[in-house]
Amino acid sequence: MSFGPSFLLLAQAAGGPAESAYHPGLPQLIIILVYLGLLLGLGMFSSRLFSGTREDYQAASHSIGPFLLLMSIFGTTMTAFALVGSSGQAYKEGIGVYGMLASSSGIIHSLCFFLIGVKVWSFARRHGYTTQIEFFRDRLDSDFLGLLMFPILVGLVIPYLLVGVISGGVVVQALTSGLAPDWTWFQVFRDNGQPNPALHGGVPPWLGSMVICMVVLVYVFFGGMRGTTWANTFQTIVFMILGVITFFVIAQRLGKQDGLMANLRLLGESVPENYATRNEMSKSLFFTYLLIPLSVGMFPHLFQHWMTAKSAKAFKVPVIFHPVFIMIVWVPCVLVGIWAQGSLMPSMPPKPSLEAANSILPFLVKTQTGPILGGFLAAGILAAIMSSLDSQFLCLGTIFNNDIVLHYSRKDRFSDRQQVLFTRLFIIAIVAVTYVISLILGPKSSVFALGVWCFSGFSALFPIIFAALYWRNLTTAGAISGVFAAIISWAVLFYNATSQGNLGDFHLMLPIGGSTYEIMPVVVMFFSSLITMVVVSMVTPKPKPETLAKFFG
Amino acid sequence: MSSKRSGPMIIAVLVLAMLILHQDNWFWTDGTLVFGFIPVGLFYHACLSVAASVVWYLATKIAWPVELIEETKAAMQQDVKEGAE
Predict the structure, then answer these.
(1) CB–CB of A110 and B52 under 8 A?
(2) Could you tell me the pTM of the whole model?
(3) Burial letters A470-507, b for 16+ CB under 10 A, else e
(4) Closest Cα of chain B to A260: distance in Å?
C-alpha cells in the first residue's frame, strides 16, 4: 500500500499540472481548505451537544443510531486505500484485486460485526466497558493480559496512523503542485537540479500533514466520539460520491463517445486479457488472503465505535449494507484501474510505472479532468484518510486513560471531567508523537508497506476475541499464550521479510503433495495463535465459575 | 420456534457457501465481458457482494441474537432501577 513513493513518482508521470485558466494548484488548495473548514465546523458544532461526562466523550453516551453507525464504521474501515489503492492495485494486477480485498471484506467484515460486534456491545453495556482491554481483563480475570495487550494494540495502531498522516501530506502536495514555485519551502527539485513538475510549488508534506493532524485533533478534541462519528459520516458521504463522479467523468474523457454505455463498452473492450482475468494471480494467495479481513474483529478503534450504538438493533444496518457499500466504492475504482492499461489510454503524458501504481487515479484526474475535480478528489482522498485517523486517535487516548490511568488509580480518585481532560491530553500527545515520527520517517519511508502487516497482526489476535466470546473453556493461560504465539510468529516473519528487503511482497511457500503453494504470512500467525490458545486452554485450570456465570449465564 | 435453532444454522451454511464460492477458479481465466463492459470475474464478485448483503439481511431476520439482547436490556433496566434507588 505504498502511497508516498507513488505520489512522488506522479511527478515524472504526469509531466506537471494541466494547463488551465486557473493559477496552478490554487483551486485544489481552496477546495481542500473549504473541506477542512467544514470538518472543523462540524466538530465544533457537535461539541455543543457534549454533556461533559467521560461516557459521552468516549462513546457518545451510546446514542448513535443505525445510519450514523453504518457510515462511521464504513468510514473507519475504509482508508485511502479504498479510492487510491483499489484503482492502483487493479492497474497493477487486474480485476482479481476486487475478490482478494473487497468481496472477501464484504463477507467477513459483516460476519465480524454480527458475531463479535453485537456480543461485545451487549457485554460492554452490561458491565461498562469502553475498550477491548477492559473486556479482556474482566473476561479472563487477568491484569497481566491487559498489560500485555496494551503495547500490542498501540504498537499495531501507530504504523496504521503513520500511513494516514504521511499519505495525507503527500496527497496534498501532489494535488497542489504549481501553487507557489517561488517559495523555498514549496520547491522540489530532481537529482539533476530541475524542478519536479508535479510536486514543485505544492504544499510541502510536513505542512500538509500538520494541517491534517490539527484539523483531526480539533474536531476529536472538542467533539469526542460524537464529533468523530459525525465527521466520519460526512467524510464517508464525500468519498463515496466523489469516487462515483470521478468514475463517470474519466469514462467520458477516455471513451469519447456519446452516452455512458457506449463509453463503458468501448473501454471494456480496450482492456488487455491479463487485466480482465486473473491469469497471473496466485490462487492460493487469493484464498489465504481471506484471513486478512478478520482483522476488523480486533481493531480497537472499531471496538469503540461499536460501543456507541444506541441499541443492538442499530447493528442491523451496518451488517446488511457494508458489503454493498464496499461494492459501490470499489467496482468503479477497479474498472478505472484496468482501463488505464487499455488501448484507449493516451500515450502522452507517459503512464505511471507499476511501482507507482497507486498514483494512477490522481494521474487520470490530473491529465483527463480539470483542477476543480482534482481538488474534489483530493478532498475525497483526505476524507478517506481522516475518517480512519480520527477514530484511531480517539481510541488510543481512551485506552491510555481507561486502561492505564484509571485502572491503576484508586477508585473514584478522578472525576468525569478530569478523565475527559486526561483523554484529551493523551490525544494531543499521540497526535504530536505520530506527527513527529512521520517527519522523522519522511514521505519516502517504507512505513507504507507496514499496512498489511498491521492487519495480519490484528487477524492473528482474532481467535482470542472469538474464543473469549464463545468458548467457555478459554483459560487465562490459553489467552496469554495465544497472544504470545501471535506476536512471536508475527515478529519472526517480519524479521525474515525485512532481512530479505521484501516487506511489501513477502509470501511463504507451502509444499503439499508434491506441489508448492504461495500463502500469506497471516496463515502462520493465525494458526500459531489459534492452536496455542486451544492446546494451552485444554491443559490449564478452567475459569472461575463466577466468571463463567457473568459471561455465559 | 424452530427458526430459533435452525436460523443460525442456515446462516452458517450460507456464509460457508459464500466463502467457498469466493474461490471462483472457474472464472479465473475467463475474460468475457458482461453487459459488454464488465469482466465476468469482476461481475461475479460484485454479485457476491450483493449476495453477502442479502445473506446478512436474512441473518438479521432469522439468526439475530434476540435472547442475548433481551438479557442485556433487562440487565440495563435493573441497573437504572438500582441507580434510582
Answers:
(1) yes
(2) 0.90
(3) eeeebbbbbbbbbbbbbbebbeebbeebeeeeebeebb
(4) 11
